Amino acid sequence: MPRQFTEQELVIASHNPGKVREIGELLAPFGANVISAGDLNLPEPDETGDTFVANAELKALASMQGSNLAALADDSGLCVNALGGDPGLNSARWAGPSKDFNIAMAAVHYKLRDFNDKSAYFVCVLALAWPDGHVETFQGQITGQIVEPARGLNGFGYDAIFIPDGYDITFGEFEAEAKAAIAHRAVAFDQLVKACFA
User: Fold this and answer.
1) Could you tell me the CATH number of the domain that includes residue 170?
2) pLDDT tens, residue by residue, 155-188
3) What is the pTM for the complete model shown?
4) What's the number of domains the chain is made of?
C-alpha cells in the first residue's frame, strides 16, 4: 500500500522555475505548502543515476535531507527513438551550462537531419521522499513527433519541438492548463495523487 501524504510542507526538489510552477499548480488542490529547493538554497545534487527513477529518488532524498522536510523530485527527459533514446537522461545537459534549451533543441534537429523517423517520447518520474527516508515513485510517458522549426513560446525545455500524438500543435503552443491535463508529468501526477493524496 502506498503511504498517504499528511505533511504540512513539501519541498519541490528543483531549481527550474517553470517546473516548480507547474508542479505547484498541480499540487495546489491538496493544501500542502510548497517551497522550492532553490528558495531554500539547497544545492543541486549530481545526477549520477543511470535511470530516470534513480535520479528522481536521488534528488528527492537530497532535498529531504537538506531541509528535513518531505520532498518531491521529478526527473524527466525527451527520448528520441532515432537517436537511441537521446537526449534522455542528459536532456538538461544538452542545454549547456547556461540551460539554454534553444541550443538543446537545435542539437536534436541537427542530429535528426538524416533520419526519417522523428518519433519521440517524454518520460517523467516523480519521487516523493518522507523525512524518515521512505520513497514512493511514479512514472508517466507520452509519445509524439519532433518538428522543425520550433513552434510556440509556452512551456519550457523541449516543448516547442514536440507534438504529442493525436494533436497538431507543439507543447510550446498548448495553453498551460491544456498541456498539464495530458503531458507526461500529468500522467505521473495522476498516479501520485491517487496513491498518496486520495
Assistant:
1) 3.90.950.10
2) 889 999 999 999 999 999 999 889 988 999 889 9
3) 0.89
4) 1
